[in-house]
Amino acid sequence: MSHPRTSRPKPPPPGKEQAKEVINLGEFQDADTLTYSEASLVLNALMAKRRNDRKDVNGTEVLTSTLTYLDHFARFRQKENVEAVERLLSTHKNMEKFERAQLGSLCCETAEEAKTLIPSLADKISDDDLDELLIEITKLQNR
């Protein structure tokens, strides 16, 4: 006699995820992704809302460390530029969300550099098209 399941199925064991020639992000495969700049905007907006609501604005040590990290590595400071990069990257539907977020965070200078750091891009976009995309991203970074 078979009994109904009384617990959730176990998640797959960690360590199977990879971002190489083939991207396998496990349970996060289809999750929305953010660039460092987008994540910085979101968390800083949350902290501003907490300050306005006069709630505890100190946050946790993890939140503080995360904000420090994001503020250090976010390449775009102006909200308009962050949104423009997102619009630019979102036009490349053949790329995974993860790949687009990586391009928006790493701000590579050349297609060769981008394809070295994000190997899964190799067959998804030509070097010329990728160089053009990177030039457009760089223009937004320098505003």
From TrEMBL:
It is found in: Nucleus. InterPro entries: HRDC-like_sf, RNA_pol_Rpb4/RPC9_core, Rpb4-like, Rpb4/RPC9, Rpb4/RPC9_sf. One of its GO terms (molecular function) is nucleotide binding. SMART domains: RPOL4c. Gene3D superfamilies: 1.20.1250.40. Its main location: nucleus. Pfam families: RNA_pol_Rpb4 (PF03874). Residues 26-141 form the RNA polymerase Rpb4/RPC9 core domain. GO terms for biological process: DNA-templated transcription initiation. Keywords: Nucleus. GO terms for cellular component: nucleus; RNA polymerase complex. Belongs to the eukaryotic RPB4 RNA polymerase subunit family. This is RNA polymerase Rpb4/RPC9 core domain-containing protein.
